Amino acid sequence: MKKYLYSNKKLFISSIVLSIFVVLSDIGIAFIFKRIFNFAHEGTIIQFKRLVLFSLVFVSITYIISFLQQNFQARYIKNTSVRLRQDVFKKIINKDILNFSGKNSANYISILMNDLKIIQEDYFNSIFDIISNIFRFVLSAWAILYINVRISICIFIIVILSIYLPLLFSKKISNCKKGYSDSLSKYTIKIKDILSGFQIIKSFNIEEKIIDEHSKYNKNVEDNNYKYKKITIVADIMSNIMGFALFFTSLIVGIHLVISKKLTVGELIAITQLMNNIKFPIITISSKFNILKGSKPIIDKIEKILNSEKSSDKLIEKNEFNDNIFFKNVSFSYKDDRKILRNVSFTIKKNKKYAIIGPSGSGKSTILKLLLGYFDNFDGEIFIDDINMKLISKEYIYRLISVIQQDIYMFDSSIEENIKLFGEYSNEELKRAIKLSGLEPLIDKLNGEIKTKVGENGSNLSGGEKQRVSIARSIIKNTPIMILDEATSSLDKQTALNIENSILSLKNTTCIVVTHKLNENILKKYDEIIFIKEGEICEIGSFNQLMDNKKNFYDFYSSTLDSKYKGCVTPV
């Protein structure tokens, strides 16, 4: 975090220098009070008037310096917070899919919204408060020492006791702060989960149960917040007690010295004024030190993200797809010992069209996820143009491959932006994508208003319309490899056939399609059909070849016609 503390050195140093001037001004006011009260005994009216005028000018300058100092500090914290949040967000967004999916996305939301706010308030502000109050304490102590040595000795004795005080509470405060941060993260996860399932909650009339569930997490947050506040209140009260002891002891000693004629009333008033610059810094430093210690677990959490390396940083670049994709004895399981894929081997040749077909749960979508680099923990090898895919940067894999998935996410923006996804494309490219994806009827219905907002996650569009937007965004990307994972499942039969025909007619594009809609006319257009069951490749060939074989694919295809599935036999 030190990197960010010194990231805006000019503003940081300016704020510190101005805070020193503020402290000097406050000390100067104490000496002005000393002169005013001494004039009450020995000065003239003219001298008194001049001193009052000087005091007013001096105080005005003090407030101007104070304003500048607070403004510089606010600008520093703003700039530093913007950079820190941007860097954390960049690290999160640059994670690969496997590492990102390792945590609930609400964890990241909590870090960006809650933890960074805590860092802003409890780290950066505390640093400034501690530095300025150290200067305030040191310079004020020197001023009191200049006025009277005996009172200074009393002050230093109590200060030594006060320095030890924060150490008694720092560990407890740190643990409570971490507990509060963790509970906020859990609460954010729960809220995201609840709001995402709002339609389910309403449809199944489980509002009361959800309210009770929310109540548990809500109470947990506030319980942890209360624990944190309770321990900081105790620490602050102890600091206040030490501050009062400091002030009261010095005041008693000062009055005694005045009575003994060893101190003037003006000097006592000045010391009393300066005592505020001793008392409050001790209280503030003690409190801020505990807050600073308490924020350490959160700082560690954020620094863990900041220090994480982008997985593709040391991988190679690949800008072209020249020959083929080869799966060699690939086996994979998600978390348990159950194999999703077993020794899968096949070849995808450039510009050819492939359909991956099989029963539900056979591993079709898993093959696509491995090809997209979602998981690296598989056995066997996947090659792209004879290069092991694990050695290729994910960034460049996604430049080669575009994917159309069954589950579509829509940004709360226009139809145009959801197709372009912030890319720069010509009007001709946009029109082509709209035509091939079957979006023209929707655009016509909207009177050509392609900038129409789609709403949160496409709430203003039907499922089929969202699917067409997803297809359009992949077509406009114009990658050499296109993957479709049940991409036309939410479309009507005729629209699905039209779109699949359009995609299969794309030139210079390698297509890999997972589908459950088995239309003979469409299947005949694929160069090869890869039939898979229970994680194993049973057959590979053209539609006519597989039908002539009358084995695995033949039985499965026939079952879709007569609703009688005969199963997958072992290939000869």
Automatic annotation (TrEMBL):
Span of domain ABC transmembrane type-1: 15-294
Membrane-related topology note: Multi-pass membrane protein
Gene3D superfamilies hit by this protein: ABC transporter type 1, transmembrane domain (1.20.1560.10), P-loop containing nucleotide triphosphate hydrolases (3.40.50.300)
Coiled coil: none
Pfam families, per database record: ABC_membrane, ABC_tran
Signal peptide: none
Main location: membrane
PANTHER family per record: ATP-BINDING CASSETTE SUB-FAMILY B MEMBER 10, MITOCHONDRIAL, ATP-DEPENDENT PERMEASE MDL1, MITOCHONDRIAL
Protein name: ABC transporter ATP-binding protein/permease
